[in-house]
């Protein structure tokens, strides 16, 4: 199986996030996530978009007519003899209903995201040299960071909720620098392209850090309050 095929990666990542990728196939994909930054990035993108779609779906409780129609199509008695038999059928169908709706939802979400990816994902400004995912304390993905030859592309995750009166600044922590080096302010939502620090390629970066700052960024040139750290992986 060619895991360099972008279409295949998208399909597997979408199934993984939806939970429909199971058994040995899911275990293999989890191994690939650990080994490949490209696959981690694809999985992160699907997670963000599917979570956004999921929040827009309003749960609907099927009425009695729907239960009766389903019971008839599945071969149950068309006219239950009494309320007890009606309860038995409805109880059985209530266990089946999440499976049916889950399959339908998974299929519709997969189609929606395939169409979205084709039209919405921006083209990266040059090859990706490094990638990092900044996660919160609950392991939610807050920012996806991609380093290009001249720019740094940052995408804010849908789970990140920034404070209106604060900014969030990205820093490089390097062994050959006594203090962290600012890389710019992070977006609270959406995507932002940062100009790459002219010293970036000369830094021996050990990790990235995100600090909470007053609006406009650090007033001292150093992190005010470090919130998160992340590894910077080379591609």
From TrEMBL:
Annotated keywords: Membrane, Transmembrane, Transmembrane helix
Domain named Anti-sigma K factor RskA C-terminal: residues: 103-224
Parts of the chain that traverse the membrane: 96-116
Domain of life: Bacteria
Keyword Transmembrane helix: yes
Record protein name field: Anti-sigma factor
